[in-house]
Amino acid sequence: MTQQHDDAFLADWAVHSRFGAVPGTNGVDRQAASAADGEQRAWFAELLESHGFTVHRDRIGNQFGLLELVPGAPYVLTGSHMDSQPTAGRFDGAYGVMASAHACIRAAEELRAAGETPRHNLAVVNWFNEEGSRFKPSMMGSNVFTGKSELEEALATRDPRGVTVREALDALGERGDADVFAAGGRELASYAEIHVQQGRSMEEEGVTIGLVNATWAAHKFDFVVRGEQAHSGSTLMADRRDALLGAARLVVAARELVDEFEPGQLHTACGELNVYPNSPVVVASEVRLLLDLRSPSAEVIAAAHASLMRTIERVQREDRVEIGIVAEHSWDQNPYAEAGVELAREVAESLGLAHDRVMTVAGHDSTNMKDVVPTVMLFVPSVNGVSHNLDEHTRDEDLLAGVAHLTGVIRRLAAG
Ligand code: HGY
Ligand code: MN
Ligand code: MN
Ligand code: MN
Questions:
Q1: Does 363 contact ligand 1 (Cβ within 6 A)?
Q2: Whole-prediction pTM
Q3: Ligand 1 in contact with 293 (CB < 6 A)?
Q4: Predicted ipTM?
Q5: Position in ligand 1 atom list of the atom nearest CA 220
């Protein structure tokens, strides 16, 4: 039966990898509520329905497949996200959603074959807009689901062209009109998520299953730097208020911040920067940029935050620009419940899969879910740790080991 299941997963996985595929590469572009996102959602709904799930979408576009095994019982929910960064890998998020669907299908078949009646039902989720590329911030669907963000505020979020989340979801017919759990009258018992590591330690150490036991802290600042538009040639240097110079100094300062701490204690980057008017012979009057700080230590992230604020004061004074914080999105450094780590360890032992505890540096929807229900977070290795990159890759044998392991975890959670 395992070979049949593995073949079935790889067949569905090959089909799914074609949605939003970037020609001539291994990667994809299927940002939240894009046409490609709409196509993959429609295909996924049909796949779920063909296996007996009923498909729902909630008011922020989270897509759910419900497999009712015990009428009225709470649900074990498993899933991740299918949306991607603009040019990125086909594994980030999507693997977890596809693995979750197949793990639920297998777990239900095994329970039936064993004549076992579980205590819980099973459900799969494809969270809306985990990446936060087109619509900020990231993890939008699970932020709303767990009450960390307000629904109306999320629906009113605009992309760079001014399109709102509400309009984009409605254009695809992907905005539901009710909650699926909680106010939807269904109870959640637990949550499980499997994801590619997006780091290289597991591959280097020969670990197949990562038992995620804690998350790094993250603090993302959406800054605006305002100066004064001027002729880049004739304007005297002393008269300039150059917003792009101020922004550039912030980008460099974020990198220099890393060297104020022990190696491996702080990661920083600026991945998004927009200049206005962005014209050849013009001193920029406004720049928007997003700085991303990550640390395994709450103290380091707090110290880095304070140091960055001091740099902002200095740049404002020296470059005579105003620097404002448009938005912030952060989560603390904290653990995943030890009970979930132990359950996942036991399943890995029983399957003979190399496993180890690992912290996650990237945020996931489980970062939110672990604060509301008992949560199990799992990793499979990333080749060379590459992610948010067209060449992101995980080997088939690791994909399949992850599905088998998640099936075991779901059976344990369903037994209650
Ligand atoms: O922000 C993160 O770490 C995730 O990729 N959304
Ligand atoms: Mn089967
Ligand atoms: Mn992800
Ligand atoms: Mn990602």
A1: yes
A2: 0.97
A3: no
A4: 0.89
A5: 1
